Amino acid sequence: MNATPKALEAEYAELAIQTQQETQALATETTLLNPRFYTTDFDEMDRIDVTPVRAEWDKLLDQMRSDPNKGHFKKNAEWDADWDGMEPKLKREFIDFLVSSCTAEFSGCVLYKEMKRRGNNPDICELFNFMARDEARHAGFINDALREAGVAVNLGFLTKAKKYTYFRPKFIYYATYLSEKIGYARYITIFRHLEANPDQRFHPIFKWFREWCNDEFSHGEAFALLMRTDPKLTQSFANKLWIRFFLTAVYSTMYVRDHARPEFHKALGVDIEWYDQEVFRKTSTIARQVFPVELDIDHKRWLPNLRRMRDAFGLMDEGKKQGGLAGWIKAKRGAVIAAATFVALYTIPVIHREPPKNVRLEPAY
Ligand SMILES: [Fe+2]
Ligand SMILES: [Fe+2]
User: Concatenated DSSP letters for 77-88?
Assistant: First the structure.
């Protein structure tokens, strides 16, 4: 028997609620791979004295004050989204991509805003205010795109429901610097690829990526300058090991996460491994401005271990879904392999670099 239009309508409404709940759950969940929310010792950060980098600092802040992307994050005639014409599997992965990007953008916004709120140091407060402004725009723009698909992340709810991870300020510098620069490299690589292959641009949001990633680039510049105010942060033996740790963790997480979205990358016409290596290469080249060590992504142990890491996460996932004792054992086995693989990646000899006298860079890709 055919369902009446009323029944169908109710079914669709039910489905929409389910998808909405799933989206919210996706954004709220804290796993090893999901974007996290951070908190830190704001008083320590407030004590930073930017005098050693004053000239470069003022130039960067002038540029942020001029707000070059003020009018950028608005839909215009170029916006031609077609969610209904999207293949369901692609749609699912694309939504997952947008939710994770929105969460990451918003996580930056929350951290930066909190620093601005708690600080008294005018240099620091001004910087964090500009960065919070940008991230709020980014998250809002993605959420707008999601809303057209009938799903959106409740950002207010997220602020309360999400678990916060505490990082000491120096870890915030390493992790946030990297995520800003990697964000730039990811957005610009997709943008350039679609510029050359416009037929693969299956959603208009990618057209906004170039100006967008310039924001991320300057946020990264700010963290590079903050790190330069204290040479110990990048020069001490222990901190070099930490930088190496963060590079390995951030790169391998990105590799595993991207491989979970095969349909999304297929639609873009991008080979995931090529894309990831390209993003690592750009990020590593940029990071020479401040990091004294660089991961050797052409080392013969690099890619095989990343693939092993991806499979280990696959095993953990399968185990969790399977449940029961067998599932538990499978998940544990995955976790053990992942940990061993991380050690294998971490111990690949690094390339030592001497950071240049002048820190500042301009986006060049
Ligand atoms: Fe952003
Ligand atoms: Fe950013």
Answer: TT----STTS-H
DSSP 128: H
The residues with which 166 forms a beta bridge, in sequence order, are 39
Q: How far is ligand 1, taken at its centre, from the CA of residue 84, in Å?
A: 27
Q: Are 268 and 322 in contact (CB under 8 A)?
A: no
HSE at residue 354, side-chain half, CA atoms within 13 A, is 1
Query: How many angstroms separate the Cα of 208 from the Cα of each of 47, 313, 323?
Result: 36, 32, 42
User: Which run of H or of E encompasses 252?
Assistant: helix 237-259
pTM above threshold 0.70? yes
Give the C-alpha separation, 362 to 342, whole Å: 33
Three-state secondary-structure class, residue 241:
helix
Distance (Å, rounded) from C-alpha 153 to C-alpha 162?
A: 12
Tell me the two tokens of residue 259.
């491989």
CA of 177 to the centre of ligand 1 (A): 12
Please list the residues that pair with 294 across neighbouring strands: 351
Q: How far apart are CA 169 and CA 179, in angstroms?
A: 15
pLDDT digits (tens, 9 = 90+) for 283-320: 999 999 999 999 999 999 999 999 999 999 999 999 99
Question: Residue 214 Cα, ligand 1 centroid: separation in angstroms?
Answer: 9
- 134 CA distance to ligand 1 centroid (A)? 6
Question: Which amino acid makes up residue 3?
Answer: A
CA of 241 to the centre of ligand 1 (A): 27
Ligand 2 centroid distance, CA of 108 (Å): 7
Residue 28 confidence (pLDDT): 67
The rounded Å distance from CA 153 to ligand 1 centre is: 16
Ligand 2 mean position, distance from CA 161 (Å) = 22
| Centre of ligand 2 from the C-alpha of residue 215, in Å | 6
| Distance from residue 138's CA to the centre of ligand 1 (Å) | 5
